[in-house]
Amino acid sequence: MHDATPSSQAPPAADVTERLGYRLKRAAAALRGAMDRALREYGLTVPQYACLELLDQRPGLSNAELARGTFVTRQSMNVVLRGLQEAGLISRPATTDRGRALPAHLTEEGHRRLASARSAVYAIDQRMTDAVPEQRLAELLADLDNMAAALDG
Q1: In DSSP terms, which residues pair with 106 in a beta bridge?
Q2: pLDDT tens for residues 74-92?
Q3: What does the pLDDT look like over 26-38, one tens digit per residue?
Q4: pLDDT band at 9 (very low <50, low <70, confident <90, very high)
Q5: Is 4 exposed, middle or buried (0-12, 13-18, 19+ CB in 10 A)?
Q6: Contact between residue 31 and residue 128 where contact means Cβ atoms under 8 Å apart
Q7: Residue 3: what pLDDT?
Q8: Of the residues 41, 80, 125, 149, which has the maximum number of CB atoms within 10 A of its CB?
Q9: Are the beta carbons of 72 and 80 closer than 8 angstroms?
Q10: Would you list the DSSP string of 7-43?
Q11: CA dist list (Å): 57 to 2, 60, 128
């Protein structure tokens, strides 16, 4: 039996939509929808865009590293990478010297497509940022990091 003190439990919500987790999920769904709509114009999905961003910052990442960085499974990342490779946006060697990891790199077209899509995604991020009073933004970001840390592991 779990022994929890009243101070360690959140009070029951009369309305689930008042719970923190629900509000976070609602914000995440709104972000995903806005990004889906914006990226469609560039022929990209959200995971593809995230993968291109990561490869721009850290060329040569492996499938597993990209999967962790974009919050998808390795199997899903295989599909993402295959689609990006078929579209000519990334290149990967057919084989590698070090184990099974096939490092990925942006092609020139990948850099161009990312640069085009980036402004639309950054505009969405700015709309969210503008919705938070400037004096509270740093605290909100720290709170989000603390929430993630509280649930990791």
Answers
A1: 90
A2: 999 999 999 999 999 999 8
A3: 999 999 999 999 9
A4: low
A5: exposed
A6: yes
A7: 47
A8: 80
A9: yes
A10: GGSPPPPSSGGGSHHHHHHHHHHHHHHHHHHHHHTTT
A11: 45, 10, 23
- Between CA 82 and CA 88 the distance in angstroms is 10
Under 8 Å between Cβ of 8 and 37 = no
What is the average pLDDT across 126-137? Answer: 96
Place of tokens 């769904």: 29
Distances (CA, A) of 148 to 102, 104, 152: 30, 28, 6
Asked whether 104 and 55 are in contact (CB, 8 A), the reply is yes
Q: Is 92 left (phi over 0), alpha (psi -120 to 50) or beta?
A: beta
Distance CA 36, CA 58 (A): 24
Q: Residue 63 contacts by C-beta under 8 Å, 6 or more apart in sequence?
A: 74, 77, 78, 81, 101, 102, 104
- pTM, two decimal places: 0.82
Find out whether 84 and 113 touch, Cβ atoms under 8 Å.
no
For residue 30, what are its two tokens?
């709104």
Tokens in use for 111? 């850099």
